[in-house]
Amino acid sequence: MKTFENIHDGETYESLSPQEHRTRVLAAPVVLRVRELSKSFNGLKAVDKVSFNLHRGEVISIIGPNGSGKSTTINLISGFLAPDDGLIDINDQAIAGLSAAEVSERGLARTFQNGRVFGSLTVNENIALGYHKKLSDTRPLSSVQDTPIIRWLNLLGETAVSLINGPAQKREHKDVSQRIDREIDYYRERLGSRVNDATYTLSYANRRRTEIARAHISEPEILLLDEPTAGMNQSETAEVLQQLLYLKEQGHTILLVEHKMDLVATVSDRVIAMDGGKIIAVGDPDEVRSNPLVVESYLGRKLGSDDDVNRVRTQVRAERNAGVLNSQNAVDDQEQNSLDFGDDTKSLLTMKDVNVYYGQVHALQDVNLTVPQGAIVSLLGGNASGKSTTMKTLLGINKVTSGSITYNGEDITHTSTRERVKQGIAAVPEARRIFPQMTIYENLLTGAYTQKDRARVAEDVAAMYERFPRLKERRNQLAGTMSGGEQQMLAFARALMSHPRLICMDEPTMGLSPRLVEDVLEQIASLRDDLGVSVLMVEQQAQLALSIADYGYVLQSGRIRLAGTGAQLLDDPRVQEAYLGGAGRS
C-alpha cells in the first residue's frame, strides 16, 4: 500500500494544513481520469459530459440533489452501467464499458448506497470476499476468467485447489485471515464480538461497517464510497468520519458520494457539485458549499432556515391537538413510556405488552404503543434499539411471543402479513426496496396485488401519476435507474395502491439530499392531512421525524423509554441520550 509518507517524501499527514495537503495531492499522479462522460435513459440525460481527475491520495466528494447524476456517474465509473459516450481511465488504462468485475480487477473497490452484504455469510466471510480478486495460489487460472469458451477453467482450477489445499494455499489463507483481523480492528468495539455471526443479524450500521471493511481489505487503487453514513445517527456518523480520516492519513485515494455536508467538508480535498447531470461547481469544500448555484440546487433554500420552519410547524400542530392527551405538560423527570389518550381520540393500532425473541435474544420487552387514526407517530432510537423489529412485528413478519396487537378493533396478533395488507396495513421498507428491473408502472401494479378490480387498479395508477407527476413522466423507465428521491416517491405510491389506512415507513429519508428530505416530509404530512392515512415512521434523524410527528416513542434496548407529543420530545434532552446510544436506565 502506498502510504502518505511514500507519496509525499516522508512528510506526515499531520504536518500539513488542509490547503497544503490539497496542493500536494493535486501535484500527485492522476489515478482516475474521466472525460466527457455521458449517459441517457429513454432520452433523459442523466449524466451530461462530466469530466474530472482524481489524484493519488486525494479525497473527492460528489454532492448534489437526488436526481443530479451522482449515482449514475459512479455506476458508470465502477462498471455497473456502460456509458453512451466518454472516457474513463484508471492509471491510464481504459475501463469505460468494462464489467464491474473487470473494473474491480483493475483496482477499484466500492460500497453501495443502501448497503449490500451477503446476509447468510458471517462478517469474516463477507470481508474475505473483498480479497478474493487478489488471490493467486487459490486462483491458479484466474487469467482466463474473462476469456470466452475456456473461462470455466478458472472455476475448475479453484475447485481443484480447494480440495487439495496445499502449503501455498494455506499460507494464502493465513494471510487473508490476518488481513481480516486488521479490518476488524478498525471496528473492534462494534464488530469484534460478531465476526462469526451472519450479517443479516447485524444492525444496519454494522452491516455498513462490514461493507466498508470488505471494500478496503484489497487495498484498492480507488475506494469508492456511496453514502457510507446513510441511515446512521450522529455518533455512528462520527465513527465513520474518523475511519475516513484514518484512510486519508494512510494515503488512500477516495471518491465519496455523501449528503452530510459537515462530513464532506472535514474529509474532502475537493468537492464536485452536480445538478441536472452536469457539474455546476468544483473546488475546496468551503468554496463549493457557499456557491450560490450549489445552495440553490442542493439545499433548495438558505442554510439554517429548516429548523425554524419545522419548529413552527410542530408548535402549530401541538396547539391544534391540545386536549388530545390527558397530560400535555413536558415529560417530567420520571420515565414516561406510554401515552394516555383522551376519549375523543380513536386508536387505529395498539400493541399491548408485546414481547418478541430472536432465539435467546429478548428483542422487544413489554412494548406498549398506540397509533391513533389520522396521526403520524415517530419511532425513535439508536441502531439495534428495536425500531425495525417493532415495525416487522406490526407487519406480521416477526412472531409475537406474548402480548397482543389490535388493529381497527380486531386482534391481529397471529394474522398473516398478507391478511394485514388486505386489511389496510402497508409498508415502505428501509432502503425503499423497489423492483429495479421492473418499470415504474409494473412496480405500481405490485402494490395492488390484493385488488381484483382491474378498472379500479387503472384508476389508482392514474391517481398516483397525478399525485407524483415525476412518476408519470418516467412510467416506462426501469425503477433501478431512478434517483433515490424518485425511488422513494415510487415506494410511497406503491404503498398507496393497496388503499391503506396505516403505512409503516422505515427510514424514509435515508440517503436523500436536504431538499428531497423536505419534499418527502411534506409528502408524509399530506398522507395524514389530505388522505387521513395514519403513519408509523422509523427515522434515524430525530429532529426531522419529530418536526412532523403528532406523537413519538423512544426505544432503547427493546424497551420504550419515553413517549410524548412531537413537541414534547423535540426539546427533551433524554431523547438525545437514548438516540445517541447513552446508557439506558434499568
From TrEMBL:
<dbReference type="InterPro" id="IPR003593">
    <property type="entry name" value="AAA+_ATPase"/>
</dbReference>
<protein>
    <submittedName>
        <fullName>ATP-binding cassette domain-containing protein</fullName>
    </submittedName>
</protein>
<dbReference type="GO" id="GO:0015807">
    <property type="term" value="P:L-amino acid transport"/>
</dbReference>
<dbReference type="GO" id="GO:0016887">
    <property type="term" value="F:ATP hydrolysis activity"/>
</dbReference>
<keyword id="KW-0813">Transport</keyword>
<dbReference type="InterPro" id="IPR032823">
    <property type="entry name" value="BCA_ABC_TP_C"/>
</dbReference>
<dbReference type="GO" id="GO:0005524">
    <property type="term" value="F:ATP binding"/>
</dbReference>
<keyword id="KW-0029">Amino-acid transport</keyword>
<dbReference type="GO" id="GO:0015658">
    <property type="term" value="F:branched-chain amino acid transmembrane transporter activity"/>
</dbReference>
<comment type="similarity">
    <text>Belongs to the ABC transporter superfamily.</text>
</comment>
<dbReference type="Pfam" id="PF00005">
    <property type="entry name" value="ABC_tran"/>
</dbReference>
<dbReference type="InterPro" id="IPR003439">
    <property type="entry name" value="ABC_transporter-like_ATP-bd"/>
</dbReference>
<dbReference type="InterPro" id="IPR017871">
    <property type="entry name" value="ABC_transporter-like_CS"/>
</dbReference>
<feature type="domain" description="ABC transporter">
    <location>
        <begin position="349"/>
        <end position="582"/>
    </location>
</feature>
<dbReference type="Pfam" id="PF12399">
    <property type="entry name" value="BCA_ABC_TP_C"/>
</dbReference>
<dbReference type="InterPro" id="IPR027417">
    <property type="entry name" value="P-loop_NTPase"/>
</dbReference>
<dbReference type="InterPro" id="IPR052156">
    <property type="entry name" value="BCAA_Transport_ATP-bd_LivF"/>
</dbReference>
<feature type="domain" description="ABC transporter">
    <location>
        <begin position="32"/>
        <end position="301"/>
    </location>
</feature>
<keyword id="KW-0547">Nucleotide-binding</keyword>
<keyword id="KW-0067">ATP-binding</keyword>
